[in-house]
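[recover] target loaded
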């Protein structure tokens, strides 16, 4: 029996489509990646009995990125990203193992039916799926087509069955237009972002310059916010006065009258009219007129109008609205919610659509009246040629609507109500969200937009992006060449980039007005190893140390607190060490500011602290303080923290594992000797006389943290999710610096227990 492999864009869509096509008789199982299910059933396809396998992806399978060496900001000139830097496709989410999952499920199939969303992104995902599975499909020895594309606009029985009966082919041109957009966004965005970030990062102390990003869509979005802010700031309010009068007739309700003159800007003039009106005892009606107003029929609903109505009437943000609309679509309540079309085709079954709503408890009577009186078609809109306007496909019961209301209330508490581009400019600290869901630009956002206008307004105006989109649409229609459009657009932005680089001083002048030079900010913390003067600690992101005498800036670990480390110095460069800590319950380690950015040894990388330094004799290095291999990760080493007393601890230098031990001990040291069983470094512990757990009142003991029975009750693991059980003797542990490359002597690999934390607790307790 032949196999038909079918792929949808989301797991929920795959389930809905499989249930419709199998008439509820499909069997389901989880796929190897745990995120996608596989629904199987038998049926007829192209006049033959076949086995259907329906599954899904989770959005894009692949993403575009530069090859490895071009991701190094320090070694690559941003200008090279426009042409010289090669790109490659990588898995969009490696943790999902989507390519392997698709290959395993599609192996040996005879036909493929692609049920991806019917838009350009969906067409692009079609070819990502095909690239992954086509080499594993059974070969077709005739001229039979083996790859089909299903076109649908809603998840209803009728639409899905019609799509299955009218299968077509995936559109290569639409997929190429998405490839072009992805490459343009990557090359243009990365080039501008890298240049302006590196240019401004070391110049201003109170500037959050961790990432000053540029995006072809993100930057015009910021431009709209700043433009509106500038108009508000430049508006000069002027006081004016109005007159409101009320007249009474008997016991009837008062009638409020409007003033023909509307307003006056002179208070004395207004007061004069008020005094005149007060002297009148009655009002005379001079004329009565009646007018009938006809409200135009609304045009059919497209995505933009749906977002506008949801915002004004329901107070819902665009991203929140789209999440709810997507959920309604996947469950068959509405048609596809991403459409620009506002005109129903002449053959669209409006009566059939209305009949679906006739039994609704909310508007059923209104629907029946419409059906009996006859339907006025919606106002003629625009047919863009994508999907029909957003249409209700079936009625929802009150219980189902209640579920959606409850879900909406939960989602409202998240930041999902901020659309993608607005979310980006919020995360970059270009704007802040104030009460009433209003966006207010920060100083950084305002300066950036004003700087773009000063250098090249095209960078911030939506017009150039609009022109690019028109070119991409021509690719989708097969009227333009992919490579020519890509090269032409990149050439334009490359010239703009070089002009921007040459003119960056114009933006820098605006920065100087709003931000303080780095030398004038920060507070003295530690001494420079070159001039031996105090360097200033700048807390604004990215936190760093700056020596004003040498005019050098040194990076530091982020997302933690920095303080001086006992005025101790690095033996290599004489820089005073600082201590990075993530809090009382987290881990901490010393850092040499110079070594952090300039690794002294070949086996070290940028961004390593003293707990990863391989210096053979430094008292702060991994070689002196490393104890044994981490109990959770494969590559980490547990390093003793000598500043943690009296709540002593050791922490992994790769992951978040922290091991607490020997609480209230007087002193803890790492010995130069190793355990004979597991090769971990021994520790020397001096206990307080009153709290010593040792027999006969002894206070000092040397032993292995992992193997010594004396220490068993004195060790407690925190933040760990074990991959392998710890063994009292042997096992896969690594020693510190000198023992990291060796294989420890073990006692085999016993069967892994089901409850890992229980096994760990059993060992320690």
């Amino acid at each position: 029996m032949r196999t038909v492999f079918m792929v949808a864009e989301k797991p929920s869509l795959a389930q809905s489509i499989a249930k419709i096509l199998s008439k509820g008789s499909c069997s389901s199982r989880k796929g190897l990646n745990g995120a996608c299910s596989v629904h199987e059933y038998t049926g007829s396809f192209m006049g033959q009995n076949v086995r259907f396998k329906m599954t899904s992806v989770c959005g894009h399978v692949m993403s575009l990125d530069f090859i490895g060496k071009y991701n190094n900001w320090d070694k690559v000139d941003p200008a090279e990203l426009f042409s010289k830097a090669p790109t490659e496709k990588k898995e969009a989410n490696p943790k999902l193992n989507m390519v392997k999952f698709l290959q395993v499920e599609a192996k040996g199939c005879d036909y493929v039916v692609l049920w991806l969303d019917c838009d350009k992104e969906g067409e692009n995902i079609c070819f990502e799926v095909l690239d992954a599975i086509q080499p594993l499909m059974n070969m077709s020895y005739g001229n039979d087509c083996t790859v089909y594309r299903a076109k649908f606009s809603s998840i209803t029985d009728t639409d899905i069955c019609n799509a299955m009966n009218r299968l077509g082919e995936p559109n290569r041109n639409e997929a190429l237009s998405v490839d072009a957009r992805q490459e343009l966004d990557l090359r243009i965005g990365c080039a501008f972002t890298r240049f302006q970030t590196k240019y401004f990062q070391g110049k201003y102390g109170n500037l959050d310059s961790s990432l000053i990003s540029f995006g072809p869509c993100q930057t015009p979005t910021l431009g709209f916010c700043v433009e509106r802010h500038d108009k508000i700031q430049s508006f000069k309010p002027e006081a004016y006065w109005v007159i409101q009068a009320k007249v009474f007739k008997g016991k009837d309700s008062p009638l409020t009258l409007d003033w023909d003159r509307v307003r006056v800007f002179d208070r004395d003039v207004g007061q004069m009219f008020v005094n005149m009106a007060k002297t009148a005892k009655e009002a005379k009606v001079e004329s009565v007129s009646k007018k009938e107003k006809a409200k135009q029929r609304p045009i059919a609903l497209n995505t933009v109008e749906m977002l506008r109505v949801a915002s004004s009437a329901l107070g819902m943000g665009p991203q929140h609205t789209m999440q709810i609309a997507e959920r309604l679509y996947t469950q068959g309540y509405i048609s596809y919610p991403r459409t620009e079309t506002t005109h129903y085709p002449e053959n669209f079954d409006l009566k059939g659509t209305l009949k679906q709503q006739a039994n609704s408890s909310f508007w059923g009577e209104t629907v029946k009246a419409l059906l009996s009186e006859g339907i006025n078609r919606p106002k003629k809109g625009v047919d863009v040629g994508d999907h029909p306007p957003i249409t209700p496909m079936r009625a929802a019961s009150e219980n189902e609507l209640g579920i959606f209301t409850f879900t909406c209330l939960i989602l409202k508490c998240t930041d999902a109500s901020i659309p993608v581009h607005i979310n980006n400019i919020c995360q970059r600290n270009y704007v802040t969200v104030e009460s009433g869901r209003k966006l207010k630009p920060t100083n950084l956002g305002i300066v950036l937009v004003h700087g773009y206008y000063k250098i090249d307004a095209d960078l911030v105006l939506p017009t150039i992006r609009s022109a690019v989109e028109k070119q991409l649409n021509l690719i989708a229609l097969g009227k333009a060449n992919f490579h020519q459009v890509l090269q032409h657009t990149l050439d334009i932005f490359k010239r703009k980039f070089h002009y921007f680089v040459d003119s960056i001083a114009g933006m820098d002048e605006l920065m100087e007005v709003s931000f303080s030079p780095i030398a004038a900010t920060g507070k003295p913390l530690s001494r420079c190893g070159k001039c031996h003067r105090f360097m200033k600690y700048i807390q604004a992101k990215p936190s760093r140390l700056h020596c004003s005498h040498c005019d050098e800036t040194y990076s530091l670990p982020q997302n933690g607190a920095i303080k001086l480390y006992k005025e101790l110095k690095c033996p290599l460069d004489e820089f005073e060490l600082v201590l990075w800590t993530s809090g009382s319950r987290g881990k901490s380690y010393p850092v040499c500011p110079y070594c952090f950015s300039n690794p002294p040894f070949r086996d070290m990388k940028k961004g390593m602290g003293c707990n990863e330094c391989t210096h053979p004799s430094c008292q702060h290095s991994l070689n002196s303080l490393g104890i044994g291999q981490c109990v959770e990760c494969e590559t980490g080493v547990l390093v003793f923290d000598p500043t943690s007393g009296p709540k002593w601890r050791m922490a992994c230098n790769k992951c978040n594992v922290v091991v607490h031990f020997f609480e209230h001990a007087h002193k803890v040291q790492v010995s130069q000797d190793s355990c004979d069983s597991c090769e971990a470094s021994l520790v020397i512990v001096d206990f307080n006389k009153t709290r010593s757990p040792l027999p006969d009142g002894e206070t000092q003991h040397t032993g292995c943290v992992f193997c010594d029975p004396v220490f068993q009750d004195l060790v407690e693991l925190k933040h760990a999710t074990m991959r392998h059980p710890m063994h009292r003797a042997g096992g896969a542990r690594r020693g510190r610096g000198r023992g990291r490359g060796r294989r420890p002597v073990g006692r085999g690999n016993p069967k892994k227990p089901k409850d890992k934390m229980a096994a760990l607790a059993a060992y320690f307790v």
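[recover] notes: The first strand starts at residue 2 and ends at 8.
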